[in-house]
């Protein structure tokens, strides 16, 4: 028998399963939740279950969205001659945040990693190739500046360079860092300083 009773113990246990949430944080969050207004708790529970129920991949860029094509792919003011390739939707969000880039994106859903058994076939590369038949003139490779991201950039460059201009963002970003955590100015400079590969 748990000191808090089974239902609270279950809530703590579920929160404890989330990344970065240890036992103490889970208990703190659980007590915060049970002290919240009933309407806020309902809104939180609803947001979690609706997000999960409606999540899908955009049919064009493969980002995580709840409408397909996503808001960026269906936007009328985007430059459809440029596609920026990123590893995941959080990297896309980082570039959208700096408002320097008006082209389209393609989300690979990961990076090549022989150690983790992730090969090109596991990534959304086929979907990228299918998009290069139209107006696309440049593919900017913005995978993370770590071993996996570089391996993916080299692979894509070899695959695409006979079809389209391929560039790689500059390395103003810290080695091994995830794009999501890079500050806006560094990210904007990395984009500006991209080079052909
Ligand atoms: Zn999209």
Descriptive labels:
7 strands; alpha/beta; 197 residues; 40% helix
Report on the architecture of this protein.
It is built from seven helices and seven strands. It has helices at 6-16, 23-34, 38-54, 89-98, 125-130, 147-160, 184-192; strands spanning 56-57, 64-65, 79-86, 103-107, 138-141, 165-168, 195-196. The protein has a five-stranded mixed β-sheet. It has a two-stranded antiparallel ribbon with strand order 1-2. Strand 1 (56-57) and strand 2 (64-65) form a beta hairpin. 26% of the residues are buried. The model has no long low-confidence stretch (mean pLDDT 90). Bound molecules: zinc ion (ZN). Zinc ion binds at residues 58, 60-61, 63, 69-70, 72-73.
């Amino acid at each position: 028998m748990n000191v808090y009773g089974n239902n609270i113990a279950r809530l703590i246990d579920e929160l404890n399963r989330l990344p970065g949430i240890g036992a103490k944080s889970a208990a703190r969050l659980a007590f915060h939740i049970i002290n919240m207004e009933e309407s806020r708790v309902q809104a939180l529970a609803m947001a979690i279950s609706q997000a999960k129920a409606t999540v899908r991949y955009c049919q064009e860029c493969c980002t995580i969205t709840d409408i397909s094509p996503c808001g960026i792919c269906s936007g009328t003011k985007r430059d459809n001659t440029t596609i920026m390739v990123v590893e995941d939707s959080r990297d896309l969000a980082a570039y959208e945040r700096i408002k320097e880039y008006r082209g389209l994106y393609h989300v690979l859903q990961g990076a090549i990693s022989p150690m983790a058994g992730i090969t090109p076939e596991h990534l959304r590369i086929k979907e990228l190739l299918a998009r290069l038949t139209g107006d696309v003139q440049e593919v900017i490779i913005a995978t993370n500046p770590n071993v996996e991201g570089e391996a993916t950039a080299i692979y894509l460059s070899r695959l695409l360079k006979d079809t389209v201009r391929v560039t790689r963002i500059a390395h103003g970003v810290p080695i091994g860092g995830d794009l999501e955590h890079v500050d806006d100015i560094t990210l904007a400079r990395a984009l500006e300083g991209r080079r052909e590969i």
